[in-house]
């Protein structure tokens, strides 16, 4: 922690801060610059909060943290990459996985039709919402336990492991009975009660990035899970809120590259929510693979124009099959240099 | 709902859309423009989702909602302004209220000292966190039930009604035993399980705006509460996430004015979280009153530099007292026109 | 400047960085912490760029600036507050000024009618656009020199000093002939060629904050003007771009308070562009005065529904007159504490 | 244009609006819904502004545009894709081009060393800044004409066409003498004077997206160029401003896909400014190619740690060569479905 004294700080104020740094169990290193006096507080990183509060001590202009607040998710803690197993599927082993299925589970037929089609097209896992977080209370809220039962049937029929969202601590048990992987939605990324409960679960967790969460806040949400005992965590970038309204959200693929630089956890991408536009899903999916994502989670519906949620961003069965083909196409060759020195 | 056909739409595609509009129980009004054909879907606003899904029907370029999705919170539904009663305090009756207290309750002494001081300075209610939503799992997470007990003592001693955050459906019952008003934090604004549970509570709710929630999303979160049976809801603007990093968040006072234009619910402002800087709290508080806010919620700590959370934005007891005086000062007089026509 | 070495940095890499710090004319202060080695580079703040480039030196994890990059605009440089004179009007002397007029000057009659009305209602200065920065090339681009001539006539008739936008270095001379104050629009806040040219002007400058400019970037834009010789600068907050779309921009009143804390320059507020909604202008204007703004700049049009630009946010003549009355009303009295200790 | 009347609108107000729509030369189509009356204004899209101003007519709640404001840049106007020729290089013909070079031109040696190295590694064009838009007036502002002369020498030596930024209308002529392509920087995307001047230039233009420009605002800036006579325009996505601070900006690759869906113009990507981090440039560059970008523009410096600007995001010569190899690598193969139906 670096403490920057203001230009008008008195020696007395400086002494007080030095004293407080020592009380926090840290060693104060004082540098007197041309304009500012700087105190480096060395040691005891767990005194972070107490040191940060010195921002309001008299004579202090700023307190600047210099270490990252996350530990267990970091590559300092674990050098190699984590692989998360969901049934027979490995996420993070170098071969990107594709998770596909409807936004909401609307009926047994809808789910089974979709499940078979996505499996046939090459998907590795099935997604489908039983409990839906909806902005409006007047929107379809999901079929609940009935949908979980359909998921179980679909898994039995297709062999695909299933992932579904859990919205409340109270539902963790029932959802865990039916699902192979539990999803924390973007709106719940900082629902710390839910995170603490899921930390005790034996199920792997798919942790979506919050709508306005920084990369570090996202990693700290994962830290709650690891610290509580569950290290089977997959991160999912799904677009962030920005001023741009042409796309539903703004997909942040640099965040995928950076999350993999900072953390050993696998990172996948949700191109459906990120763009909100069916026509962009395929090209953005390719970009996600190219940037190094460990997988994709894609919304597919047999009849998007009759979907009860997220129709505009859902691929139909044929569209998903084309997407899978498209993901296998090679990148275009670069233009060759035609430059000739004079 | 307005459906805009693309310039290349065929008559067949148009017929299909018209058919679907009728299936949704709406009446299609077709306008043929120079470039685009427009279909107005008139009637049955509860078919919103089904109509929106037509965005992916062939030949459709866009589907544009024209009605707001919230009802019970709107001024169409209730013309007069709602007043929310918390103990003997009325929020929304024209006289702004001040809620003050520490971010976290750290000890009985800390809370009681603060409670007495803010009461003496004129505060109407006491705030204090027992369960703290913290970005990092390594940060102080609150004293829980012990803190609730201190709150009860503080209320008995000072007579001030108390508000505290509830983070989980499981805690609603215990928190309701101790607190006069339950706060939903910004990170939980779209924790729909929690909203549904609180809709059944008899306690008034303080609903903070989410970090990246639009005004309409905020009102829809309140709609969950009203629709579920609890109309004792106070909205709280506490700053939104933007690119600006000099302040902790960006306080959106236009949103206060607009929320009051769109809804009958009272709206208060949290200048502490919005700015994250003690030096800005007083001037921003005055602005909030001037824009029409029904109250303020302000962080106060006897010794901010030793606070376990949010020290940098907390006022000390003397600072709070000065703030209260400052709120009573008149606005500066405008410059007089010195213009003289030639 | 603080240089943070990575945990894996070698002694050789450390030596190299220390050497480079010395080459930059700075004194390296090394603190060895538990996890990281920190080097404070003391002295020669003008080597900022060279030191920042060390971010890519081997073994360096981060380089953290600790001094603000602006000087002449800061309160360290000038302790008292600057007052900018525009004709007989003082901006920044404690009595807020009101600048009013149409977005675009559309005709002589339109401008004169507005000018007389705003003067009669108490405005101190007249605004009006001759050159309009329009997002679309198909929108009305302003009447140019003809509009400048109307401004001159309006000033002669009403005695109000006038401010108008200059969009290009080439227009600075002609606009300076007619206007008392030159406005730099939000889209040109970082048009550095224009800033350099205006630094040589003798006219006072109204510098709008860029649509996504941080407070520090805004102050650095002003620094271009002061460094080039023009210290007659008024800052204008006019809303920033955020995810919120209900208002045209998000008014950042905390930025007004902070800009006045960091700088000696006057700061005014444009509630019209900030909100884009006529109904919010009055309450937001009061908030601006309450937060400490030195003035307001407000769009007024005799017939907003026929305005060639910005009609939705323009007040009509009657509305402006009511606004001025509203600005004189006292703040509402706070609720009195009814608390009684048990 | 859709005009939505408020629920409280009177018949008289409705008649007035209908009259105004006719005055604007449009045909009013009235639909009476359950809650709202809607008027479709059909015809004469050039009356956009006048119709939008009706938002403030009595009884009107909202005015909703239904056509895009850009024309010449759209795929409705030109169905095929545009190819922009810069010397012997084709941008937009399916084979992505790579433009590389230093942020600032610092010396003849620095530029020539870089130019030869990037050519040898396969770059198609050379970039380098002569006039630098710098946030702070105290930062290196570029060598100006001297740098332009170095660019000319570098082109002669390497055969690579060169692109450089022009910041002011006054510099267009001199820069055009030396450069093959003129760049409009992000901060100047809405410098309409500059756009109008460049519309008359015979040089192709590289138009960077503004820091907070929506996709539509970006296309409208290009529309200024095409409308003025210059259709040799390449769009460049370079990251937008968001709340995320770990990366310098947030790269918006969905915008690349969408810009290509909406417009016939080529679109390239600047991964250096977008991320601001050298370590992310390679993976993000691959993603850009995968999403369909027509090229990349990358900052390369022989000695980034001594760069006078943008060192942290510049690749060194070896790093650039590795990047080019990396761009040729195939995408990873997807995980194979291991699912077996029960």
The CATH H-level superfamily of the largest domain in chain A is: Aldolase class I
The figure for the number of domains of chain A is 2
As a percent range, the share of helical residues of chain A equals 25-40%
Shape call of chain A:
elongated
Which pair has the most extensive contact? A-D, 69 and 69 residues
In total, the number of strands of chain A is 14
Mean pLDDT of chain A: 93
* Spatial strand order of the main sheet of chain A: 13-12-11-10-9-8-7-14
Instruction: Specify the structural class of chain A.
Output: alpha/beta
What can you tell me about this protein's structure?
The structure is a homotetramer of 342-residue chains. Chain A is of the alpha/beta class. Chain A has two domains: 2-64, Alpha-Beta Plaits, CATH 3.30.70.1140; 84-328, Aldolase class I (TIM Barrel). Helix content of chain A is 34%, strand content 18%. The first copy, chain A, is built from eleven helices and 14 strands. In chain A, the strands form three sheets. In chain A, strands 13-12-11-10-9-8-7-14 form an eight-stranded parallel sheet. A four-stranded antiparallel sheet of chain A has the order 2-3-1-4, covered by helices on one side. In chain A, helix 6 crosses helix 7. Chain A is elongated. Chains in contact: A-B, A-C, A-D, B-C, B-D, C-D. Chains B and D meet through strand 2 and strand 3 of B and strand 2 and strand 3 of D.
């Amino acid at each position: 922690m670096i403490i920057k004294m203001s230009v008008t700080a008195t020696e007395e104020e400086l002494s007080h801060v030095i004293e407080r740094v020592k009380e926090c169990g840290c060693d104060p290193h004082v540098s007197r610059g041309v304009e500012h006096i700087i105190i480096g507080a060395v040691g005891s990183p767990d005194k972070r909060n107490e040191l940060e509060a010195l921002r309001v001590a008299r004579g202090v202009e700023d307190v600047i943290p210099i270490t990252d607040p996350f530990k267990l998710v970091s590559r300092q803690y674990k050098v190699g990459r984590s692989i998360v197993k969901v049934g027979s599927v490995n996420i993070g082993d170098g071969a990107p996985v594709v998770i596909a299925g409807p936004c909401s589970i609307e009926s047994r037929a809808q789910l089974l039709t979709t499940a078979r089609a996505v499996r046939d097209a090459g998907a590795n896992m099935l997604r489908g919402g039983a409990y839906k977080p909806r902005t409006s209370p007047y929107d379809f809220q999901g079929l609940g336990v009935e949908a979980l039962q359909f998921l179980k049937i679909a898994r039995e029929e297709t062999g695909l492991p299933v992932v579904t969202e859990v919205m409340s601590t109270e539902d963790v048990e029932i959802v865990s009975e039916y699902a192979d992987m539990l999803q924390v939605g973007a709106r719940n990324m900082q629902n710390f009660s839910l995170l603490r409960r899921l930390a005790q679960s034996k199920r792997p967790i798919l942790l979506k990035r919050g709508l306005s969460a920084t990369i570090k806040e996202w990693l700290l949400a994962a830290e709650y899970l690891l610290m509580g005992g569950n290290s089977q965590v997959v991160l999912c970038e799904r677009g962030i809120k920005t001023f741009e309204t042409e796309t539903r959200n703004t997909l942040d693929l640099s965040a995928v590259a950076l999350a993999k630089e900072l953390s050993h956890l696998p990172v996948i991408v949700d191109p459906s929510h990120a763009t909100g536009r069916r026509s962009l899903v395929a090209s953005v999916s390719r970009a996600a693979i190219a940037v190094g994502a460990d997988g994709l989670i894609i919304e597919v519906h047999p009849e998007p124009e009759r979907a009860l949620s997220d129709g505009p961003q859902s691929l139909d069965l044929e569209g998903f099959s084309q997407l899978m083909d498209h993901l296998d196409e090679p990148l275009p060759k670069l233009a060759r240099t035609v430059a000739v020195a004079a």
